Amino acid sequence: MAANWSFEQFTMSIARMGKAELKHRIKNFPGHFRLDFTDDYLNTAPADRLRHILLAAMINAQAGRN
């Protein structure tokens, strides 16, 4: 994520992501902690839940940098 991270821009970006992009971002999360979800879970979870997971991970990762 860019140094001039914008919460509003990122949340808008997540809101526009389709399920395939959300799954990709979660599976390849670049944070200092690993997101460990099975393919079965990611395939069956609703897109809104995946959005919540990704947003929470990004908020946590950003907080760890400050």
Describe the structure.
With 66 residues, the protein is an all-alpha fold. The protein has one domain. Helix content is 67%, strand content 0%. It is built from 4 helices and no strands. Helix 1 packs antiparallel against helix 4 and helix 2 packs parallel to helix 4. The longest helix is centred in the C-terminal third of the chain and has 19 residues. The relative contact order is 0.20. The model has no long low-confidence stretch (mean pLDDT 89).
> What percent strand?
under 5%
| Overall outline | globular
The count of DSSP E runs of length 2 or more, i.e. the number of strands, is: 0
Structural class: mainly alpha
Reported for the largest beta sheet, the result is: none
Report the helical percentage: 55-70%
Q: Domains counted in the coordinates: how many?
A: 1
Task: Please give the alpha-carbon distance between the first and last residues.
Answer: 14 Å
Give the low-pLDDT segments.
none
Order of helices and strands: HHHH
Arithmetic mean of pLDDT: 89
- Number of helical segments with 4 or more residues: 4
Specify Rg, calculated over alpha carbons: 12 Å
Topology, pairings included?
Elements: H1 7-16, H2 19-27, H3 39-44, H4 47-65
Briefly characterize the structure:
The chain has helices at residues 7-16, 19-27, 39-44, 47-65. It is mainly alpha-helical and 66 residues long.
Structural features:
66 residues; mainly alpha; 4 helices
